[in-house]
Design brief:
heterodimer; A: mainly alpha; two-stranded antiparallel ribbon; 2 strands; disordered C terminus; B: 2 strands
Chain lengths: 396, 318
């Protein structure tokens, strides 16, 4: 069977690789954002799906409208899209014509892509404030309950409000990368991976800065951080807002990859549970673990989907149930047998600090202490009764 | 006596949510985690009713004791295999919470597989069914309407009696209060925890078994109850079992009655947004009074006003 699988991989090599790279890029962003929140600041965000969906909704509700308006101004034969009915049923025709127009207009496409990324980030950032409002100052339990509730609420709103994303029918969005002559998916995958790398460096810089150390302090002991005059609630909220913005960027890219937005693309199981699974398998607190966990889960999932009919011969029930069961079981197995994940957290490495010197200095301090003669009970007695009293009093 | 259908529906639903809330709050009190697999227990109850009624051909009420046993056994297995193991490994609140979500996903798939098996092999329509016609009729009502109220009241009274009057219940409350101290006093914490998970699972499964007699049953029917259940537990205050009764019943009533009223006033399209009602309630409760009704009463009791009130009846506020 492995030989057959290898042959299949050789034939469909390119497509599978692009698919895996694309989804790795997508999930690594959300997993890194989650690691930023939970692994480093201790904010248990179970609402990644909300942030991802706001990115998708921004593309379908705002960017698509702007593009249609621009197309109408430029003389593309855009048919009416103002009412709910027209918005859904003329959507395919409009998108088709916009794609034709965008093929020739590289500048518009690229600038709209960048604009939608920025819009997604800002929308996610603002949404982070809203979703953190009820429960960020309360215990973790309340925050978890609120955020899970919000994820369902985002889906209900997306399903029922037609102007957002076409309700239950979904919406096609114009292909802003249509100017690229080759395979669109390759370009999307490359762009996603680049965004992933950029966000990795942003996050690494933030974690190595004093703010990153503050975040870790909040995770370890919020009471102490509060007592030295830092606003723990504000730090947690800022972290949640930033990570929510990053997750929204991913929602934007997903919308462009599918060229389609529907609320079921952003379900809670996919966009909240799987990033958590990746984080827990890789080990929370370090980015290397996140990468490993993400690569493992994505490769497993995509291979199960691609080789579905081969696996289906061995199981009597649909493979999709098997896949979900496997993912559910994996977390519990990992939590029981490897509670710290594949790569446990290490000490934070801060550039510009000479660790060797730090270690040497502490040893020198130790040497001096041991060389100096330690005061003993005999010394106190020699100094007289009062002195010994003083000595004991000090220690008390 | 004529009771509007909406009110009957609301009372039946509220009774179900109350039973669910009792379990959710009990888990949160003893294990200190929100159990997101709670809705899926109810899903198992739905399929117990389905199997007893459609496949075996008996009255759905025969399935209720079976549902309690099945749910209890599932809860106990989960406690042994997952929760107790992770506790021993030193897993914190977050790890346990995410593992309950993993359990939820695993068990929901098990339900899907069962429904698929029944449909393929036995030929019953198992992905969306209603058992209303299998119910008995009493005084012109559907049987489930009085039965749900009776079952809910019985559960509440039995639970009250157990927690207040029996030694085992007092030990349970002590464990919820302070596990270490109660283990010093010679209480077997493991047994208490196991029993509380049995009780939670059994109650949730019972609530689920009542569901298809009035509402549509499907593999995801149980999970949909979870949001209302969480809202009810929050309204009651997560630290108090009696709060769950008040909170669960009010959330269930509000959800159905408010939606029905809004449908009359605003338009039929409001019905789509019914799940938003408990969500808005959740957010409102957290913004106004995070500790819920029981927390509010507790605060009032130790305030000067409350002390005056109790002093008038010659009782201390403690």
């Amino acid at each position: 069977m492995i030989g057959q699988m290898g042959a299949m991989v050789a034939i469909e090599y390119q497509r599978i690789l692009i698919d895996i790279a694309m989804f790795f890029g997508l999930f690594v962003i959300v997993a890194m954002a989650l690691n930023f929140q939970y692994g480093n600041a201790g904010v248990p965000n179970f609402g990644c799906a909300v942030s991802a969906s706001i990115g998708g909704y921004m593309v379908s509700a705002v960017v698509t409208r702007i593009l249609f308006w621009m197309g109408a101004q430029a003389g593309v034969g855009i048919i009416p899209y103002a009412s709910d009915y027209d918005w859904v049923y003329n959507n395919q025709m409009n998108t088709y014509m916009m794609n034709d127009y965008l093929q020739t207009n590289m500048f518009l496409g690229a600038s709209m892509f960048l604009f939608s990324l920025a819009l997604g980030f800002v929308a996610g950032w603002a949404l982070g404030y809203i979703i953190s409002l009820p429960a960020i100052r309360l215990r973790a339990t309340y925050l978890i309950i609120t955020l899970i509730t919000m994820a369902d609420a985002a889906q209900i709103l997306g399903r029922n409000i037609v102007p957002i994303s076409g309700g239950t029918l979904g919406m096609f969005v114009p292909n802003v990368l249509a100017w690229y002559p080759g395979d669109r998916t390759i370009l999307t995958a490359v762009v996603t991976l680049i965004i992933g790398i950029v966000s990795y460096f942003i996050i690494r810089t933030m974690l190595n800065s004093p703010y990153g150390r503050l975040m870790r302090a909040v995770r370890e002991n919020p009471v102490t951080v509060n007592s030295i005059g830092k606003n723990v609630t504000k730090i947690r909220r800022d972290v949640l807002m930033f990570a929510s913005g990053m997750t929204a960027v991913l929602g934007v890219i997903l919308a462009y990859y599918y060229s389609f937005v529907i609320e079921t693309n952003y379900i809670r199981a996919t966009w909240t549970y799987w990033p958590w699974l990746m984080l827990m398998i890789g080990g929370p607190g370090n980015n290397a673990g996140t990468f490993v966990g993400c690569a493992l889960i994505i490769a497993m999932r995509r291979l199960i989907i691609v080789f579905k009919w081969r696996i289906a011969r061995f199981i009597w029930y649909p493979v999709v149930f098997f896949e979900s069961q496997l993912l559910g079981l994996l977390l519990i197995v990992f939590m029981v047998f490897r509670p710290n994940g594949l790569i446990p957290e290490k000490l934070l490495r801060i550039p510009g600090i000479n660790y060797k010197r730090l270690v040497r200095e502490t040893t020198e301090v130790d040497w001096r202490v041991s060389r100096r003669k330690q005061p003993t009970e005999g010394d106190a007695k020699k100094r007289g009764g009062l002195g010994s009293l003083k000595f004991w009093g000090k220690n008390k | 006596m004529i009771i509007p259908v909406v009110w009957m529906s609301a009372i039946t639903y509220a009774a179900m949510i109350t039973i669910l809330c009792l379990g959710f709050t009990l888990t949160h009190m003893t294990a200190k985690i929100p159990n997101f697999a709670h809705g899926t227990y109810a899903g198992f109850g739905v399929y117990v009713s389905f199997t007893v009624t459609r496949v075996l051909g008996y009255s759905p009420y025969i399935g209720f004791p079976l549902a309690i046993v099945l749910g209890g056994v599932i809860g106990m297995i989960l406690y042994f295999v997952v929760v107790a193991t992770l506790r021993r490994m030193g897993g914190g609140t977050i790890v346990l919470t995410i593992s309950t979500i993993a359990i939820q996903i695993f068990m929901a798939q098990a339900l899907h597989i069962y429904a698929y098996w029944v449909r393929e092999n036995l030929g019953f329509m198992s992905y969306g069914f209603l058992l209303k016609q299998n119910d008995f009729r009493i005084l012109g009502f559907q049987g489930i309407f009085p039965m749900s109220v009776i079952i809910c009241a019985t559960v509440v009274i039995l639970l009250y009696y157990m927690l207040r009057r029996t030694k085992f219940g007092i030990a349970m409350r002590a464990t919820a209060e302070d596990p270490q101290l109660s283990s010093v006093l010679g209480i077997n914490i493991n047994r208490i925890q196991m029993f509380s998970w049995f009780l939670t699972g059994g109650l949730a499964c019972l609530a689920g078994a009542m569901l298809p007699l009035w509402f549509m049953g499907s593999p995801t029917a149980g999970v949909r109850l979870l949001v209302s259940c969480m809202a009810g537990s929050l309204l009651g205050g997560l630290e108090n079992i009696y709060g769950a009764i008040v909170g669960g019943f009010s959330v269930g009533m509000i959800e159905i009655l408010l939606t029905a009223w809004l449908q009359k006033v605003v338009g039929l399209w409001v019905g789509e947004y019914r799940p938003l009602v408990p969500m808005i309630l959740t957010i409102g409760i957290l913004l106004i009074e995070p500790s819920g009704i029981s927390g509010y009463i507790e605060r009032w009791r130790i305030s000067p006003k409350g002390q005056d009130f109790f002093a008038r009846f010659g009782r201390s506020s403690e």
